[in-house]
Amino acid sequence: MARKKVTLQYIAKDSARRARFTKRLGSLMKKATELGTMCDVKTCLVVYGEGEAEPQVFPSHAEAVDILNEFKSMPELGHCKKTLDQEAFLTQRIAKLRDQVDKARRECQDSEIRYLLYNIMHGNHPGLVDLSAEELARVGWKVDELLKSLGERMAKNHVQAPPPAPC
Predict the structure, then answer these.
(1) Which of 5-9, 92-96, 160-164 shows the lowest per-residue confidence on average (mean pLDDT)?
(2) Measuring CA to CA, how many Å separate 145 from each of 44, 55, 126, 136, 138?
């Protein structure tokens, strides 16, 4: 049975907020335990509750201190190797999206050229009269590319073809 989606917003009612906090904290601790068991890693949680003097520490204060000290003793490169600030992350994301846009643009242009070539082959552009110089150049380039590809396939098939059987 699927649960309804919970809206993420501040819970105004104190008793409901404390109950939700306690429930979610238990779930979070369970997840940390499962992650440590399944992946054979050390996990700890430090949660500062609203209005509490000391944080809640999981699994225990001593174990959490040991894990955090081990983390602090790692070389700087070790725990910050893949960390990005917001600007670097956005720059990386923009570059990836630009690559996707360029790829989609090339695929679209290729499809347009193929469609134009298809129409030319079926006589919809007799004499290629109504085509611009740019369209003619792209069609010529595509025809050259297709002929080269066809020649490579023929050469490959010719090399792989078994010798004819003697009569």
Answers:
(1) 160-164
(2) 59, 67, 22, 14, 10
Which residues make beta-bridge pairs with 126? none
Residue 56 pLDDT exceeds 80: yes
Residues 167 and 163: their CA atoms lie apart, in Å, by 12
Question: Would you say 93 and 86 are in contact if contact means Cβ atoms under 8 Å apart?
Answer: no
* Residues shown for the chain: 167
Interatomic CA distance for residues 21 and 31, integer angstroms: 15
Separation between Cα atoms, residue 100 and residue 107, nearest integer Å: 11
In angstroms, the Cα distances linking 82 to 36, 39, 91 are 21, 20, 15
83-122 tens-digit pLDDT: 777 888 899 999 999 999 999 999 998 898 888 888 878 8
Query: 3-state class of 104 per DSSP?
Result: helix
Copy the structure tokens of residue 123. 């006589």
The neighbour count for residue 74, using CB atoms within 10 Å, is: 10
pLDDT of residue 65: 92
Per-residue pLDDT, 52: 82
What are the helix and strand counts (H, E) for the chain?
5, 2
Dihedral sign from CA coordinates of 68, 74, 75, 76: negative
